[in-house]
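Task card 7
Instruction: Convert sequence to structure tokens.
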Amino acid sequence: MAASLFQHYFAWRVRLTVTSMTTSDRIGPHSSSHLVMTAHTIAVVAFDGISPFLLSIPCGVFGEDRSAAGVPRFDLRICGMQSGPLPTSSGFCVVAPYGLEGMIDADTIIVPGWHDPHISPPETLLEALCAANERGACLVGLCLGAFVLAAAGILDGRPATTHWLWAEEFGRRYPRIRVNPEVLYVDDGDVLTSAGVAAGIDCCLHLMRKWCGAEIASRVARRMVVPPHRQGGQAQREAGRDRLHGNLAIAQGLKSRQRWAHRCHCGRW
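Output:
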């Protein structure tokens, strides 16, 4: 029952609004009310030194308009920790249209990594995350973003994961967290953490599946040309080998097609 309520609430909030409308607005010829769909709001935190790839993950999963494929729209907000251009780890800058105020009423807040685990996040960000946690928002730490949630005390007493390279340091610095360094992501209800880099895709697709169902998540995965579902409990390094083997299989298949096309073109069999 709790899981069902969670899925329905975080998929989208529906409220019945009784209002006077023009004829074109009405559901039927005698209708005087209609359902107003309020989009699920997702705030993504952007900061100096952010990885463009990690930033792109929630944008790619939740920010694209796939309504033609039956995927619900999300209100995606990129929230910068400061105004103006934010340098990325790849040498170019991004400009966030929102500040941290964009997190105030967000249903979900995603921290896509962190630029340096040895540097503590600013108090303004930690306070905003704690306030969101207290009001029941879903919080997600992708890769080293788990360090940010941990610094806010949100992961105390909870299971969590992060990039395997930093898992030992993570557990040493935050002993109250039940660190699982092997898995791709951990879903602890209203708080989720993921392993490094590409595991963030798996975590976000898991959220899509949780909110909107397996069919919608599969449609998004197909558009992104990624596996529709990798279990969160799958080992990080094993998952890396699986992804590598999958890429090699794709490359071999393309090579075979190229040889076949060349033979057709040249008339050789």
